[in-house]
Specification:
This protein is an alpha/beta fold. The chain has two domains: 3-237 and 401-420, Aldehyde Dehydrogenase, Chain A, domain 1 (3-Layer(aba) Sandwich); 241-385, Aldehyde Dehydrogenase, Chain A, domain 2 (3-Layer(aba) Sandwich), CATH 3.40.309. It has 17 helices and 17 strands. A seven-stranded parallel β-sheet has the order 10-9-11-8-7-12-13, sandwiched between helices. Strands 16-2-1-17 form a four-stranded antiparallel β-sheet, with no helix packed on it. It has a four-stranded parallel β-sheet with strand order 5-4-3-6, with helices on both faces. Helix 11 (251-263) links the parallel strand 7 (241-245) and strand 8. Helix 3 (35-51) packs antiparallel against helix 6.
Length: 443
């Protein structure tokens, strides 16, 4: 077999329908693959990533050169370009996250409940894989080993479709990954890469072979996928995250948190997009805060009251700014009259992702934590903590802004469901229509 045909088989070329059928067949075997074998495969994959660091970085350099040309032509945002770049340090981080998944407890076969329905008739609720999961994402190549590791550990087959801007990097990562899985005896078809827009279009109609579809990208992208597919969709939606500096905030602490939330990685969906400042401390806090933000290269867009306090060096914010996920070094700033107005603003413009309050008033903090409707609500901490790895989930498949099945950073638990196992000794329903009683006793 030629090297090219080997790569095609490992990476699952040949169309989405064929890939999904291979994934379905693999998922049956993955569901019963021993944990030790899954962990061994992941450890080998992490090792292979490190060993092939140069190959991965070189492939990424090809993608980055093409992307930089697009960025110069105004056809790619700087935020997307930032998400695309892979360095030696990035590869080390990929391997570290794979190993962190290995260290997590086995998510399969956990008994959620055991109930005796009657003597000799016992019902067990037990975790199991979803089956076949497809993830369509943009720009970030590090998504490949993150999602692939969570899928394998949780016994799921995975179909991945990255953006064309990362094609060389994704191909290199997938070839290295699947070579390690093949060497470890993992079923062929467990992890596959889709290659074209035609594959995505075909994928959307494969509800018989795909159990969950996860689009990762902008709001319009996620909504488009949801409208076109009958497969259940878990949307990795937009991140319009707020930091509210309350009247009782420690202002020095607030400055550090705001800077981190905005500038640590502005392209991330958990970066702050709007800063809300209580009117009581606005004149004391805003001049120094805005000076620090601008020194870091942040473009500040302020409300009328912000402009009155800091009259130069900032642009006027429009209504559209409050509802915008910049994904860039831009921050909108609004002065609000207390906690009630801050909560109302977040509920009007937020995306249910991650929201933070900075205050030393514990009662105000508890009100914020309890009343804000979002996947993550923080007190005196940066919104950048909204991440599967930082939460101790090993890695993440994505962040869900919704409320069904999974919410917030989605780790292995989001890739599992459960089944009921009933073990009897010849009982029939007719027995219980004739006077026999259930015990319904928790065990």
């Amino acid at each position: 077999m030629s090297a090219g045909s080997t790569e095609a088989r490992l990476n699952g070329s040949g169309g989405a329908a064929e890939a999904a059928k291979r994934a379905r067949a693999a998922s049956r075997k993955l569901a019963v693959l021993p944990e030790q074998q899954r962990n061994t495969a992941l450890l080998l994959a992490a090792e292979r990533l490190e060993e092939n660091e140069g190959q991965i970085v070189a492939a990424n350099a090809e993608d980055v050169r093409a992307a930089e040309a697009l960025a110069r032509a105004g056809k790619m945002s700087q935020a997307m370009l930032a998400r695309l770049c892979v360095t030696e340090r990035s590869v080390a981080g990929m391997a570290e996250k794979v190993r962190s998944v290995v260290s997590l407890p086995d998510p399969l076969g956990r008994k959620l409940s055991v109930t005796e329905l009657d003597a000799g008739l016992v019902l067990t609720k037990e975790t199991c894989p979803l089956g076949v999961v497809a993830v369509v994402f943009e720009s970030r190549p590090d998504v490949v080993p993150q999602i692939a590791s969570l899928a394998l550990k949780s016994g799921n087959a995975i179909l991945l479709k990255g953006g064309s801007e990362a094609a060389h990097t994704n191909e290199a990562l997938m070839t290295i990954w699947n070579s390690a899985l093949q060497e470890s005896g993992v079923p062929t078809g467990a992890t596959q890469l889709l290659h074209s827009r035609a594959d995505v279009k075909e994928l959307l109609h494969l509800e018989r072979d795909v159990d969950l579809l996860i689009p990762r990208g902008g709001k319009a992208f996620v909504e488009s996928i949801s409208r076109q597919s009958r497969i259940p969709v878990l949307g990795h939606g937009e991140g319009i995250c707020h930091v509210y500096v309350h009247a009782a905030a420690d202002l020095q602490k607030a400055e550090r948190v705001v800077l981190d939330a905005k500038t640590d990685y502005p392209a991330a969906c958990n970066a702050a997009e709007t800063l809300l400042v209580d009117a009581v401390i606005a004149r004391q806090f805003l001049p120094r805060m805005i000076e620090q933000l601008r020194a870091e290269g942040v473009e500040v867009r302020g409300c009328e009251r912000t402009g009155a306090i800091v009259p130069s060096g900032i642009d006027a914010a429009s209504e559209r700014d409050w509802a915008t996920e910049y994904g860039d070094m831009i921050l909108s700033v609004k002065v609000v009259n207390g906690l009630d107005e801050a909560i109302a603003h977040i509920h009007q413009y937020g995306s249910n992702h991650t929201e933070a309050i900075l205050t030393e008033d514990s009662s105000a903090a508890e009100r914020f934590l309890n009343e804000i409707d979002a996947a993550g609500v923080y007190h005196n901490a940066s919104t950048r903590f909204a991440d599967g790895y930082r939460y101790g989930l090993g890695a993440e498949v994505g962040i869900s802004n919704g409320k069904l099945h999974a919410r917030g950073p989605m780790g292995m638990d989001g890739l599992t469901t459960y089944k009921y196992k009933l073990r009897g000794s010849g009982q029939t329903v007719a027995d219980y229509k004739s006077g026999k009683k259930f015990t319904h006793r928790p065990l």
